[in-house]
Every structure is written in C-alpha cells, then in structure tokens.
C-alpha cells in the first residue's frame, strides 16, 4: 500500500468516526464553490475602493484564471484517467462519487486558482481564500471523491495557472481597463469619489 492510499484511509477512518460531520463536509465539498464566488466578488469590491489599476487587473483576472485552470485540467484528467477511491477501494465510507478521472481534482484546482488570484488583490482576502481552498481539498478526500495526491496536485496546478496567466495577460487587461475607465462603465472598476464638504465658521 502506497503512502497516498494510507493517508486516504486514515482520513476515511476519521470520516467513519465523525458521522455528525458528514452533512457539513459533504455540503462544502459539493457546494463550497459558492463561497469562492463570493470571495471573487469581494476581491472586485476591494479593488474598486483605492482605484488601483494593478489590484483591479488582478481582480478581473482571478475568475478568468479559475476558468482557465478548469479548462486545462480537463485534458489532463482525461489523459491520466485515475480511478477514484470511491470506485477503487472497498469497505470505505463514501459520501459522494463520480466516475470521471480523479487526478487532478477539479474542485481543488479551481480553489487553488482563486486563492492565488486573490492573493494578488488583497493579502487578507488571499489568506481567507487559501484557508477555504485547503478545507475544500480536505473535504474532497473526506467524502472519498479523491486521493490526497489528487487535491494537492489540483491546488498546486491551479495556483500556477492563475499566477502564470496573470503575468501573461496583465498587459492586455491593463489596456482594457484603461479603455473602460474612459467610458460610463468605469463605475464597474472605480468607486465613485466621495466629496467632502467643508463648512466655514460664521461670526
């Protein structure tokens, strides 16, 4: 038995001993993508406040990077075609199972890409997204949909795709944002300036 399978079985034993966690872990593993969507919106909102071209460029790229990571993952997963643990192993706790390839994990790749993208927008938001990504990776193993190596590869590849894609696309995105800033659509990338009224003292 290799190390990857041994770690999976240890986590599966933890799942067996924590039935009260099953609804929470399964819910997050399957629908936690909603949280990442919220974090992406938060990144866009944060980037609008200081009217920073660099931050907004990163905020615009973050969701694109996540989609790019998922697109790149599909041919890799099909080529490797690794059998999921829920289909390959017996006498384990299974909370969710698919029949497509297991390596790398789609969910982990998306989470890793979002987390890396949001680090470029705001450090605190990046920390939150990283914690959410790590939890997503753990829950995908907990429900027996993936082996540990599947989610670790997904997190790493997702982050690499996001960061490399940002570096490559940054000139085009900055040009595009510059064009948008000169149109009525600039409200989407820049928060309206707040006017300050100064009242003098009358005597």
TrEMBL record:
Domain Phosphatidic acid phosphatase type 2/haloperoxidase: 55-166
Annotated InterPro entries: PAP2/HPO (IPR000326), PAP2/HPO_sf (IPR036938)
Pfam family, one: PAP2
Localization: Cell membrane
Protein topology in the membrane: Multi-pass membrane protein
Keywords, ordered alphabetically: Cell membrane, Hydrolase, Membrane, Transmembrane, Transmembrane helix
UniProt-listed SUPFAM superfamilies: Acid phosphatase/Vanadium-dependent haloperoxidase
EC number, as in UniProt: 3.6.1.27
Protein name in the entry: Undecaprenyl-diphosphatase BcrC
Source organism: Nocardia aurantia
